[in-house]
Design goal:
Elements: E1 9-13, E2 40-45, E3 50-55, E4 66-70, E5 73-74, E6 87-92, E7 102-109, E8 112-119, E9 134-142, E10 145-148, E11 152-157, E12 161-168, E13 172-179, E14 182-184, E15 189-192, E16 197-205, E17 212-217, E18 221-225, E19 229-240, E20 246-252, E21 257-261, E22 265-266, E23 270-278, E24 285-294, E25 299-309, E26 317-322, E27 332-338, E28 347-355, E29 360-364, E30 368-372, E31 376-385, E32 394-404, E33 411-420, E34 424-431, H1 439-459, E35 471-474, H2 479-484, H3 493-506, E36 522-529, E37 535-539, E38 545-550, H4 551-559, H5 578-589, H6 592-607, H7 623-627, H8 643-650
Parallel strand pairs: 1-8, 9-16, 18-25, 34-35, 34-36, 36-38
Antiparallel strand pairs: 2-3, 3-6, 4-5, 4-7, 7-8, 9-11, 10-12, 12-15, 13-14, 13-16, 17-19, 19-23, 20-22, 20-24, 21-23, 24-25, 26-27, 27-31, 28-30, 28-32, 29-31, 32-33, 37-38
Helix pairs in contact: 4-6
């Protein structure tokens, strides 16, 4: 610190966050100094959680001359702004380095020094106090015997487990517990104290504790169609004595039925599932099934009335169709399945499977469907090539198989053949290393592929191009590499495109730097994330093509504002840049969608060989110029194609 300056240290203990404290520290100079000192007021506001430095002197505190230390840390934020006279500079506690209960804050301005020590109390604990609930267990006895613990009411903490053991007196036997009114036959018993419980111990005289049980069904009647099956639950309960093994049997007074138990033997209490299967010649009408339960000396029974109705099954119908001819390569299929069984067969469960060509993957939306007799249900299937780079032209056939689960003798299949053309558009999202691509952007471009295919279909005599599934490719470099590549002038558009084509070729995609070697059966259509305001396309001598649009107009279309649009000049001396265009032209004109999506469709048109309208002799601003996507693309989708455009596309190998 500079000599001749008084340093004032004030200790402040904050005892309540509801009270606001203000500290004022003033420095003084030794006598003989004529220049009026620059005063700094130093405040701490507890309620606002801010520290304020206020200049009430006559001089401007220059940028960088004021230094504030938080402990031993110099706060860089204090060097950013000038502080005029009669003004304040706020430092938020949230911007300060971490500290515990005690910290020094020091201010240094020339020969003015101030120091303030703050002491903060530890915040009170916010952890809730835990309290355990207390539940009661009441124990009683029927008959004669003892329990441990004995008869009475006991209190236990929640979650406790209490073991109760019953011991009968002479000439008595333990029969069962009644825990909250429910019989429990095991002894001892463990009770978890999750609520108040009532426990009663039943002791019986030895001469009346003979084993006994009962049998019951969950229903007294069922209906079933010929060839179907139905199940009922069988309950065997212990009513007295020590449990013994019980065997289940079932008899039927009709023909054409089979009766099966999941468990034919058990010791009460236990449950078994009885399944009744009817054959195609099962006797129609209502008949009786008797369920017998016996231990050899005691036999109990329960009766079930079964109504068998006629049910005529038929093979289902399977229909396959393209769900939408504009969706990708037309690989989304709609599948209609009709249950042709007689109406009184009711609802049936059908299994679906697909046999897929080896170079494709097939994905069914539903593998099981429940369909009422006589009804039709629609589902869908997606067919995709395993490797879009290596897919070859040809006919690819797949089969959809449908089986009635109630009787797998009734089943059907149908097939459909998808034709892949020789000449395809390959859409790609390419993003540079310093950009990311999320599902929203991928979904947006995928949707625009569909939309632009439909645009060409509607404006080109119901003919459009076929597209491979969208690929997303991560670039190896930052976007500046593709623009600059070490060059002094790094705004040369062709260099940006060439660098991306080189990397795509190295990754195995169907492009080539040599125009005369570019694949003749592919148009590669790239959305370049990191490409800024770039847009360009060409048809190569081979008949193939390349089209690319940067992210600037796409971000503007997605957001309907210019916040994410990046500055990018095509040449360093050629403003306006993309952000200028967005703010001054795209957004104010209300045609930001056409400048984005319209640009994608426009550049793709060039790759098909479509020129600007002036090649036909129509000048900019003419009616013809406004009527075609290749002119005023910013009017997309409220524009179309000229007859001259359609004449070119009529001979294009990419349109069918």
């Amino acid at each position: 610190m500079v000599s001749g300056t008084a340093i004032i240290v004030v200790a402040l203990i904050l005892v309540s966050v509801s009270v606001s404290y203000v500290i004022l520290l003033l420095t003084t100079h030794e006598s003989g100094i004529k220049e009026k000192p620059t005063f700094i007021d130093f405040y701490l506001k507890q309620e606002g959680s801010n520290i304020l430095v206020q200049n009430i002197g006559t001089k401007i505190i220059p940028e960088g001359s004021l230094k504030i230390y938080f402990g031993n840390t110099l706060l860089q934020i204090t060097n950013k702004n000038e502080i005029p006279p009669n003004s304040t500079y706020i430092i938020k506690l949230s911007e300060l380095p971490s500290f515990e209960e005690r910290i020094n804050i020091a201010v240094e301005l020339g020969n003015i020094n101030k120091s303030l020590e703050l002491v903060f109390p530890k915040p009170p604990s916010t952890e809730p106090e835990l309290s355990l609930k207390i539940y009661k267990l009441s124990i009683g006895i029927v008959g004669r015997g003892n329990t441990t613990p004995g008869i009475g009411v006991y209190e236990y903490q929640e979650g406790s487990e209490v073991k109760v053991d019953a011991t009968p007196d002479r000439n008595y036997t333990f029969s069962h517990y009644l825990l909250d009114g429910v019989k429990v036959f095991s002894n001892p018993i463990i009770i978890k104290m999750d609520k108040n419980h009532s426990l009663e111990v039943v002791f019986l005289r030895s001469d009346i504790s003979q084993f006994n049980f009962d049998v019951a069904l969950n229903t007294s009647s069922v209906s079933i169609y010929r060839g179907d099956k139905v199940s009922v639950l069988v309950f065997i309960n212990l009513t007295n004595g020590t449990t013994q093994t019980v065997t289940l049997l079932a008899t039927d007074n009709s023909t054409g039925t089979n009766l099966l138990f999941t468990s034919q033997n058990g010791t009460p209490p236990f449950t078994s599932l009885l399944t009744i299967l009817t054959e195609a010649n099962a006797q129609l009408g209502t008949h009786k099934i008797t369920v017998l339960a016996t231990n050899g000396t005691i036999t109990k029974s329960a009766e079930l009335l079964v109504s068998i109705e006629p049910c005529i099954r038929r093979n289902p119908t399977v229909l396959i169709s393209l769900s939408n001819p504009f969706e990708y390569m037309g690989m989304n299929y709609s599948i209609a399945i009709k249950n042709n069984d007689d109406y009184n067969c009711g609802a049936e469960l059908f299994s679906l499977s697909v046999s897929c060509p080896s170079v494709f993957s097939c994905s069914l939306k539903d593998s099981m469907l429940t369909i009422n007799s006589g009804n039709t249900i629609n589902t869908s299937m997606i067919l995709n090539p395993v490797d879009s780079n290596s897919v070859t032209a040809g006919d690819y056939t797949f089969f959809v198989n449908v089986t009635n689960n109630a009787n797998n003798n009734y089943k059907s299949y149908n097939s459909s053949t998808y034709k892949i053309l020789d000449n395809l558009v390959y859409p790609i999202i390419f993003f540079t290393k310093n950009y990311t691509v999320d599902n929203t952007l991928v979904g947006f471009f995928r949707e625009k592929i569909f939309e632009i295919r439909k645009f060409y279909f509607n404006n080109n005599n119901n003919k459009t191009f076929q597209a491979l599934p969208l690929s997303v490719v991560a670039g190896n470099e930052f976007n500046e590499f593709y623009w600059c590549n070490g060059a002094t002038n790094c705004a040369v558009a062709n260099q940006f495109e060439a660098n991306i084509i080189t990397e795509l070729r190295n990754k195995g995609y169907p492009v080539h730097q040599d125009w005369n070697q570019f694949p003749s059966n592919r148009i590669v259509w790239v959305l370049a994330i990191g490409g800024g305001g770039y847009a360009g396309a060409r048809q190569y001598p081979t008949g193939g093509g390349f089209a690319m649009v940067g992210d600037a107009a796409i971000y503007a279309t997605l957001d309907n504002d210019c916040a994410r649009v990046k500055d990018r000049y095509f040449t360093v001396d050629n403003p306006p840049n993309a952000k200028d265009s967005c703010m001054n032209t795209w957004l104010p004109s209300g045609k930001i969608y056409g400048f984005g999506v319209g640009a994608l469709a426009h550049e793709l048109g060039h790759a098909f060989g479509l020129p600007h309208p002036d090649s036909y002799g129509y000048s900019s601003g003419s009616i013809q110029w406004a009527q075609t996507l290749l002119g005023e693309h910013w009017n997309y989708p409220n524009t179309g194609l000229l007859d001259e455009d359609r004449n070119i596309l009529a001979t294009s190998k990419f349109f069918t």
